[in-house]
Write a structure and sequence with these properties.
The protein is of the alpha+beta class. Helices cover about 50% and strands about 25% of the residues.
Length: about 350
């Protein structure tokens, strides 16, 4: 009976030792798997106002999902419609001058051309005086803004008024030059060089019309790509300067995250290597990804890594591209990344 009990104890000890060894091997293997942490991010897409103006309409709000090419808002087109009309008039005048030069001129036409030059000359002088006044006002406004005595919106309004008046001056000068050319042509008669100049004037006026129509079309604000509306940066009625970011989108089909790998384990990471991504909202579920980029230079662990020991280590930034689960993953989610072993 004693021998049987002893044998049982020996067998139990052997089993416990074997189990401990196996558990130790499993722990060692798991411990050697390379893991890292980061935050899911998405590529930002900006809807930029290529021309300035008052935001007349905005059709999206934060959280909306929109498709590429969607019109998300409109700027007030009134100024640009006027510019198109002016450019169309310039084309008509240039074509008429060319046709008249080819047909010859009468004395009453010369008188009418002189009157038109005088009228346009007075118009240019009046607009020039207005531009000078607005330029002085704008200079004082900028000084007040720098001193903190003028709101930014008031400065933007004065800049817009100055720019609009300056455009009017340029259009008036162009009309005056056209009228002078026509008068000179009528007074001197047509020559081959004059006709060439008028042909060139027609082409230039047509180009100006194309630019005016293009600017008018840009008052419709279109999304350059599909995405989720992350922020709306202007409200209806606000003045939007050229180049302003009206709406910011997140491209949810273009998700990625940065992780940081210790220098002594960089050899375990390769471009194209598959990874598994885990996030807290979906416990027990993994999402696929791959290594897209490995930084060529080491750096100290970024400040946002909170472990004191890790913050003093040299690491390499590795960019992970999310290749699945875009319908569930969202920017800002903390994520754990497990690097799948690669075959030698």
């Amino acid at each position: 009976m004693g021998k049987g009990k002893t044998a049982s104890l020996v067998l139990l000890a052997v089993l416990i030792l074997t189990l401990a060894l196996l558990t130790g091997c499993q722990f060692q293997e798991t411990e050697n798997v390379l893991t890292a942490s980061g935050t899911i991010e998405a590529t930002e897409v900006k809807v930029i106002a290529e021309v300035g103006g008052t935001l007349q309409e905005l059709t999206v709000k934060e959280g909306d999902t929109i498709h590429a090419g969607k019109i998300i808002g409109r700027l007030d087109p009134a100024l640009y419609q006027i510019q198109v009309a002016q450019a169309e008039a310039g084309v008509a005048a240039a074509r008429a001058a060319l046709a008249e030069a080819r047909a010859g001129a009468r004395s009453e036409e010369i008188v009418a051309a002189e009157q038109e030059v005088a009228r346009l000359d007075a118009q240019v002088a009046a607009v020039q005086e207005q531009v000078t006044l607005l330029e002085d006002n704008l200079r004082r406004a900028r000084e007040l803004f720098q001193a903190g005595a003028l709101p930014e919106q008031e400065l933007v309004n004065r800049e817009s008024q100055y720019n609009q008046t300056r455009h009017q001056l340029e259009a008036a000068r162009a009309q005056l030059e056209g009228a002078k050319s026509r008068l000179a042509l009528l007074q001197a008669g047509s020559t081959p060089y004059t006709l060439e100049r008028l042909v060139a004037g027609v082409k230039q006026s047509e180009a100006n019309l194309a630019v005016a129509r293009l600017n008018l079309s840009k008052t419709a604000l279109r999304s350059p790509a599909a995405g989720l509306v992350a922020s709306v940066n202007f409200e209806t009625g606000e003045l939007v300067p050229p180049g302003a970011e009206v709406v910011t989108l997140l491209d949810l089909n273009n998700l990625w995250l940065n992780v940081y790998i210790p220098e002594n384990r960089l050899g375990e990471v390769q471009i194209g290597q598959p990874v598994q991504i885990q996030v807290d909202p979906y416990p027990g579920q993994s999402f696929p990804g791959r290594v897209e980029y490995i930084a060529p230079r080491a750096e100290f662990t970024p400040r946002q890594v909170q472990t004191r020991e890790d913050r003093v280590n040299l690491v390499f930034r590795v960019k992970i591209r999310v290749t699945g689960g875009q319908d569930k993953l969202r920017p800002g989610l903390p994520a754990d990344v497990t690097f799948m072993p690669t075959t030698p």
